[in-house]
Each structure stands twice: as C-alpha cells, then as structure tokens.
Amino acid sequence: MGLLKEKIAFVTGAAMGNGEGIARVMAEKGATVILADINKEAVFETAKTIDGAVAYQLDVSDSAKVKEVADDVIQKFGRLDILVNNAGIARMIKVDNMDDALRDLHWRVNVVGCWNCTKAFISHMIKRRYGRIVNMSSVTGPRVVDPGMMGYAISKAGILGFTKAIAIDVAKYGITSNAILPGYFLTPMVRHSAHETDPENPGRVLDGIAGKVPLGRFGDPKEIGYLAAFIASDEAAYITGTEFLIDGGSTLPETGTMGVLDG
Ligand SMILES: NC(=O)c1ccc[n+]([C@@H]2O[C@H](COP(=O)([O-])OP(=O)(O)OC[C@H]3O[C@@H](n4cnc5c(N)ncnc54)[C@H](O)[C@@H]3O)[C@@H](O)[C@H]2O)c1
User: Fold this and answer.
1) Extents of the domains making up the chain
2) Cα–Cα distance, 107 to 136 (Å, whole number)
3) Beta strands 54-57 and 32-37, pairing class
4) 92: which of 8, 22, 32, 205 is 20 to 30 A away, CA to CA?
C-alpha cells in the first residue's frame, strides 16, 4: 500500500488500457492519481472508479492545453511527483503507401505528447529537486518489429532517445527518467491492431500472439502498473536513463526452431 504514499501522479492516456492499469496500481500504492486522456467520457468514467482520482480531458499533442492543465494541477495539488507519459496510438502503415500523415500523427501524439507533458511539469520538478518521469516506449522499434509498424516504431524509438536525453539533463536535480518497453498487453489498442491485421478473424491474430509468448499469455495492464509504481517510487532513486523490458519473454526466442526440447 505505502510505496507511493502521499505522491501525486499524472498519467496520460489513462482512460483505458495500460494507462488505466498504471493509474489503478499507483492509487492502490497510495498515490493521488490524476488521469488525463483525449477521450473525455471514458476518462471521467474511469476516474470515478479509482479512489481519490481526478480526471482531465487532454490531447497531449496540444502544447497550449497541456500547459493549461499542468498549471491547474500545480495550483490544485501544489506539486507533481510522478509523470507517466503513456498516451499513444498505433496504426498500420503499408510500405507501398508510406503515408506521411500517419507518420506525423504517430510523431505528434507519441513523441511530441511526451515532450509537451515533460516540458509543462519539468520546471516544477526542478524547483522541488524531486521527480519521477516514466515514459511508455515499446519493444516495437527499439527491439523487434512486425510489418506495417514503421510510423509506430520510429515514435517508440524516439521516446527512448528522449528518455535518456532528459535523464542526463535533470540528474543533478535528483529527478529520474526511465522508459518501459512492453511486449503485448491486451488493451483496446491491441484489439484494434488485430482487427486491422485480419478484420475477418481478429481472434486468430490475438491467439497467435499469446501462443508465441514464452509465458503463454498477454500481459495484464496492471502488471505494467506494478513496474511503473516501482520505477516511480523513492526506492528507485538510483535508477535513471534506462529501459525496462516487460514482455513475458516474447523477445527471447532466437530462431524458434533450433534447440533440444524437453519431454
Ligand atoms: N498494449 C500493448 O501491447 C502495448 C505494447 C507496447 C507499448 N504500448 C504502449 O502503451 C501505451 C498505452 O497503450 P494501450 O495499449 O493501453 O492503448 P489504448 O489505445 O488501449 O489506450 C490508449 C489511451 O490513450 C488515449 N489517447 C490516445 N491519443 C491521445 C492523445 N492525443 N492525448 C491523450 N490521450 C490519448 C486513448 O484515448 C486511450 O484511452 C501506448 O503508448 C502504447 O504505445 C502498448
């Protein structure tokens, strides 16, 4: 319960999926959570189900609105201890139609969104000489990739670079910045991607993914929450500029065919 006692945490993309899982766990660990999401109805509904939570409708790619919300948070709560830059989108892009608009959309939401929120809160963290920044990257881009992921992959690799760059700049203030690289977690985003892959039979795609994970299943968004809560805790004070892979072993197999099997 006490890991994040008395901490104030701001989680973007928190209406559903991984952001919701992170917000729930952080609240369970004692934090006051502020949920921000572009989906107004969903974010207010989700906040109602989390003790003491507050919600904002926010498009993270809108820098003026991000600043307005951040100023309001600081005015109401007096500080921000934990920033979780989780909001993100994923759309397929075909290599024979490298859609510039979709490339820019990934960049704007996934990378610039992360930039905007960090920019809006960082001076407050620096002033207090305390802060935990947790950025949602992915195994997709930094580690592995499937066809059609080029817009998403460059954004997730960009987040990793941003995480490290911020980490070095704010280390002298005792502020940490780290990235989480999830494998597959069963969220609305993944259901949407499965539908884009095979609109006739998205269940086949989902079963195929789960079957290839060494631990034999999708991750549960709350499992990302447990990791994020640790990275955001006082106990993680000496961890910065690094990457946390959480993928049920999905990036482990080297060939998928070589090796001696048991049984
Ligand atoms: N689910 C996975 O398997 C997986 C794997 C690796 C990384 N991730 C990352 O985790 C994060 C969350 O993914 P998810 O699977 O929960 O997605 P999701 O689509 O299920 O949920 C994303 C949430 O972000 C919100 N959002 C979208 N655009 C926004 C914007 N411009 N401003 C504010 N909020 C916005 C959505 O409304 C939604 O509530 C993303 O950054 C994603 O890239 C997910």
Assistant:
1) 8-183+220-246, 187-218
2) 14
3) parallel
4) 22
Round to whole Å and give the CA distance between 46 and 82.
Answer: 19
d(CA 32, CA 36): 13
Across the beta sheet with 243-246, the strand order is 54-57, 32-37, 8-12, 82-85, 131-136, 175-182, 243-246
User: What is the pTM for the complete model shown?
Assistant: 0.98
Among 24, 60, 89, say which to mutate for ligand 1: greatest number of ligand atoms within 8 Å of CB: 89
* Active-site residue flag, 152: yes
Write out residues with Cβ below 6 Å of ligand 1: 12-13, 15-19, 37-39, 58-61, 86-90, 109, 113, 136, 138, 182, 184-185, 187-190
Beta-bridge partners for 54: 34
User: CA torsion 237→240→243→247, rounded to 10°?
Assistant: 10
* 3.90.380.10, 3.40.630.10, 3.40.50.720, 3.40.50.1240: CATH of 8-183+220-246: 3.40.50.720
